[in-house]
Amino acid sequence: MPELPEVESVLQCLTTSTPSLIGRRVCSVRVLRDSVVDGNVRSVVNTLTGTVCNDVLRHGKYLFFEFQNSHSATQSWLALHLRMTGRLFLVPEQMAEDRHTRFVLLLDQGLALRFDDPRAFGRVWLVEDPREVTEKLGPDALLIQRESFLNRLHGLRRQLKQLLLDQSFVAGIGNIYADETLFRARLHPLKISSDLSNEEINRLYDALHGVIAQAVIAKGANIDGVFEAGSFPVAVYGRGGKRCLECGALVVKERFGQRGTHFCPVCQPL
DNA sequence: CACTCTACCTGTGCGC
DNA sequence: TGCGCACAGGTAGAGT
Predict the structure, then answer these.
(1) What CATH number has the domain bearing residue A81?
(2) Cα separation of A144 and A136, whole Å?
(3) Which residues of chain A have pLDDT under 70?
(4) What is the CATH number of the domain that holds A178?
């Protein structure tokens, strides 16, 4: 599933490759599934048509596309979340749409920005300012500093798995990187945050930072034939019943809070 | 505040 | 072969 590293990879691909989305004018907007637009479909079409994409930002798993109206010099922002199965690509406009294509921006230079999503969980919506969204989120997991992490953890009494998945604590971690972070930190997913020693808290920060930074460089996770083309090797996610790469014990998969959770019971004792 | 449950979706893979 | 079903999971929102 696209988490922070995969979303960052999408952002880099759209903005730093050739051709780039930056500077492209929106000729028209196609909405193939109304429900992927949060809010009024017509206002999204009317607002974006004729604008030029100036910039793309990311915070956690959210992307924000800045569009400039060339006449009135006003800006509009399109927010986007890929959820589990959403994919974005900049393609030649004549490239055939998929049965899962949900939303398309037809651009100048014969290009199109396509949003495909089999499960149609992903969403796009207009915001006046990305802060409407980011204010509700914690710091971006790639950028959060140790001091901020320690301060935010202070006073919380939460299970570590749940805490890492909480986007208002730190933004960008999903199920894969939560499990990978806890494995690297040698901490059990059900451990309570307020019970951690200073040494364990620092281990958790180091693991989070290390996992996310490495996964960004690798352009995402490498999950057994599934999804993204990234090369970050997972140690526990999706490896229930297989041997722990550190100690050889069997990796456990259990459901904690409606979530498949993978961990090594020997390396990560409770 | 911390946690749980449900709804939103559909492709996949299993057992029968 | 085909059917039914559990499962995958991010987030919002309601409830405990």
Answers:
(1) 3.20.190.10
(2) 15
(3) 224-229
(4) 1.10.8.50
